[in-house]
């Protein structure tokens, strides 16, 4: 994958690992969330983004529910799980 300017359409992405270099503008579920509220720029401009994707207390609460549903997981996975839950909070339900 080339430089971030070649694949980012929202203007806010930074280059991570090849599998993580995905722009919100190329993710249909995220685009759908943006279209619901008329955001045409970037998911970070969605009025609910900070509350459901960045607020650690919300992620902590969702993580507790996730554990109840799917069981315990290694402590080392907590940060990556929070990121996964943040994604689910934003785009997980149609
Ligand atoms: Zn982008």
UniProtKB/TrEMBL annotation:
Domain (P2X purinoreceptor 7 intracellular) ranges: 5-89
Short name of one Pfam family: P2RX7_C
InterPro entries per the UniProt record, alphabetical: P2RX7_C
Name of the protein described by the UniProt record: P2X purinoreceptor 7 intracellular domain-containing protein
Organism: Knipowitschia caucasica
